[in-house]
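Batch manifest, entry 17 of 40.
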Amino acid sequence: MLSLSQRTAVSGRERTDADARPVRHCTCAPAGRPGAIASPPPVAIRLADTDDQRSQARLLINRMYAWRGYGSDHVIPITPHHITFTAAHCCTTAGTITLAVDSPAGLAADTLFRAELDTFRARPGARICELTKLAFDTDEPSRAMLAALFHIVFIYGYRRHRCTDLFIEVNPRHRRFYQSMLGFDAVGPVRHHPRVDAPAQLMRLEVAEIRRHIDAFKHLDAGPIARSLYPLFFSPQEEDGIYARLEREGFFAPAGPATPRPAGSR
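Output type: structure tokens
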């Protein structure tokens, strides 16, 4: 079994001009590509910080959301409080996720769950963040992509923004997936979301618990029936290397001193 670091690369400001739909046979030659932390990289995680990359992510989101009946006019916010990452498979954008950091403008989840979020905002030292605009379109297994995206978001959200709590709105039928695969817990009741005309459940994951999950699962097999994504996450040493790479690329400037891994990390 290959470790995630052997199968996944983290790229910096690298332009992606691939078609919108993934392909089964990779025709690019990623080995040795500048910006990759590990090679060869069948899955490459990139920061979407150009118009072209954000457009690729937006097209993916709208295609997949429309297929599920959630509308096709979604946009990716471009603010200092939003950061979007994409996962590329064989040079093609096949997944995306956006991290939103709490600000005076609030979070998207405030539309339905303001009271619940305010409870966590009121806790001393709290800095809440939200995962949004999550979409995948690939005919290859996407567990490695999902694990890589979530771990990169964890690295960025905790070390750059000192996030203490991650929230996500999901359709209730996906609740069990986020509970078993990532350790999220449901918060508040299910409510109807008029934006997508579907039910929504708010879920929360304490950031300090992410390291505990990684350590608890790191010795387990990450086979196709594994009931957690954490066996696919990076090791602490790999995480430090990724952070150092992102810091060199300027993604964290001006962030001040690096924040250490949460208590209990090894």
